[in-house]
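Running this now, will post back.
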Amino acid sequence: MFFILLLNVNAYSQGRNANWVFGDSAGIHFDGMNVPTTFHSTCVSDGESATISDTLGNLLFFVHGISLYSQPNTKIIDNNFIMMQNGDSIIGDNTYNSDIIIPVPLNDSLYYHISCVSTSSAVHYTVIRKNNFQTNGVVISKNNLLLSRTLSDCLNAVRHGNGRDWWIITRLGAIIPNDTFFVWLLEPNGISGPYKQHAGISKPDGIQRSTFNNDGSQFTEVSYSGKIEEFNFDRCTGTITSNRIIRNPFFGSYLTFWHVTYSSKGKYLYVSHYNINTDSSFIFQLDMDLQDPWLNRDTIWAITPWQGPFLKLGPDKRIYVAHADIKYSFPYYPYPSNYFTNKITHLGVINQPDSPAVSCDFQPYSFYLGPNARTYTGTSNLPDYNLGPLVGSGCDTLSLPNPSQGGALGTMSAYYHHDWQTIFVNAQNLKGQNVTISVYDGLGSLKLKVESLKAVGGYFTQNINATNWPAGLYLIELKTENEKIACKVVKY
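Update: finished.
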């Protein structure tokens, strides 16, 4: 009995990350225990798609389209491989880090599809209802504008430190040098932002990709102009700061970086590179524990001609490498219907990415995608849906009442009044009486702490003078003897 239960737990441990749908008819299922299996999908994408499964690992739906075609041409496809109701004419990009699907917190049937389309210079969202894998889904609202700016194809998402909400991150992409990021927050009541931030070196580059490490505390960005930069990310406040520049960019360089991913433990960074002079593809391994990872890099693969290696860490902790056949030159799509070679019917696999280069065991063209399935230059853009709360932080607890007292969960909200320069805090359903309020700025520094306040009948209000505080995002934390809850407010 114990063995059967253990088997079931392992078999579904990948949850929402369990399925990838991408390329031409390709699909991979990860069960957390065995070698991944393949299935035939109806995906048609020349780059990266977006996929989501339920918490038990059943495919729910995916998003695909052709980035080269005029928008809106993206479609949302149900797990029965037919277009979802109202799932046509979706604005999407489907290139690299350009589309992503996020479940709405505290709702088991609503999902946001976020798209960052560089060609139309905008970020949009679409809302999907899908109760479970056994029911048909429906698009209930589509192509809602979040931001109208020229952006880069580096859309990412990471779970908030509370383990419930989501941060969504992209950055400005333009010919003019910039260091500008945009961050949104997806909470149960919807999406807020963007919160504009400046971090890192300023550069004129519209082609850049990024990846988060295993705990969401850092991400690394690479660019076509030759930049590698690592950033710190505060999962409580959504604040981005530059950690270190691994390689400075400059135009005219033969070093152009195509994609990037961390190993599962974060010790090694894998970067794919296109050498323009020799028309060659490379994959480098960088040891992030070294003072100069780039200077001491190792080459684990070099091949001519260029294949656009796209790197993706799988739920099984292996890194999968997708590539295109440049015999058909950019934009690669479509291949002739009868054209099948190892380059496009197989993925490469780095079997031990947490090991040094000599033992990381990279096997090119080793994972067969199945009959009639082919890859182009991407897999599925999935965040780490299994990332939990940031334990020990100021935002790791979401209203946890004393079980012996029962009742509704305590909730808190905050509102900033610009004319009065005041933050109004309100809380209800509190289980304790003695209240401490703490306010942290976007860098995590304590701005204010007030103790020995009182809640009356489960209700609490407090006005905070923010006259001398700079504009930005603030985290407000409320503690009683029985609970800790938090919320955010923006001073503008």
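The chain has two helices and 33 strands. More later if anyone needs it.
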